[in-house]
User: Fold this.
Amino acid sequence: MKVDYIVVGLGLAGLAFVEELIAANKSFIVFEDDSQTSSLVAGGVYNPVILKRFTPVWNAKEQLEVALPFYKKIEERLNIIIDEKFVIKKAFKSIEDQNTWFEACDKPKLVDYLDPELDTQRYNGVIAKFSFGNVHETGRINTKKLVESYRGYLEERKLIRFENFEHEQLNLNEELIQYKDVTASRVVFCEGYGITENPYFNYLPLNEAKGELLTIHAPELNIGFLLKSTLFVLPLGGNNYKVGATFNWTDKTSNPSKEGKEELIDKLRKVIDVPYTIVDQTAGIRPTVAGRRPLVGVHPKHNQLIVLNGLGTRGVMIAPTVAKNLFSHLEKGNALSEEIDIRRFSM
Ligand SMILES: Cc1cc2nc3c(=O)[nH]c(=O)nc-3n(C[C@H](O)[C@H](O)[C@H](O)COP(=O)(O)OP(=O)(O)OC[C@H]3O[C@@H](n4cnc5c(N)ncnc54)[C@H](O)[C@@H]3O)c2cc1C
Assistant:
């Protein structure tokens, strides 16, 4: 089999790159081994504001302008609904917190998103000593549905193999690459935290930030917005909510843990005061980079080997833009911005 591209990994990064390939009529084959879960368990929230500090997310406006039509196009092609829009309500911790919000509302990059009119309403089951601030232009991509449907779409067309990509089987010739029965011009590695097993790119400084989430059923809680307090409570419908997330920098597994569950239960006690049952617990490793910029570009010695990784805590917003940047770099010779280019790190 001869293709233009081999793509390793079908999470948000691989999927966004495959969309570029499809749009440009390039041939490809994807390898996916289910070793990482980040894109399957993600909250999927897109929010242009960092609510800890009330500062804008890096290139938020530009990223959303690419990301929202990107997901819309997939919804139409696959006949699914994955983009659920809602308001985020930030529960203020103190009067100072509230005052900082008012200052932030006037910042040019935040004016479209932060509502200067506070919400003083009370919501049954929600613990709040102060008011709420509304964040607009936010929502959630149901990433599990997206990734699973997309894998199915590729499977029907025989464009994905559900097997481990074995790096040691890769033969790099002058021009082409041979991998088992596949001859290709390039390999794009979109392996998330799996990059640590990749002998070509494991020199890149990817950190593991394990995250865990609970799904709860709370019959007396009836909110249609995402509540952002000590943790987030995200409505799924039918009085079910996703609650999260933890950050653990030492555990390198994607298994749900007792510690993660206890931490979330403990924090949730300070956020809601109605009964609930736990329906599910999930975990995954966010592929994060110090400096919070993705890892994109061509291997310094082998120009057929490419990486698309480091989406960190915001894969939903970042993936479509960086995949587009990468494709235009590879196929049209347009330079990658220094901020995201892996050339900022030496081997
Ligand atoms: C608990 C949690 C909550 C999150 N919440 C949000 C959120 O609300 N909003 C947001 O934008 N982001 C969120 N994220 C972050 C988001 O999930 C990531 O940014 C994104 O999923 C990373 O996508 P990826 O494709 O780079 O990596 P992954 O999703 O890890 O995908 C990599 C894929 O490559 C495959 N793979 C790896 N090695 C191989 C190999 N050798 N052969 C074959 N296949 C291989 C893996 O199985 C995997 O499917 C969250 C993450 C976690 C863990």
About this structure: The chain is about 25% helix and 30% strand. Residues 60-78 form the longest helix (19 residues).
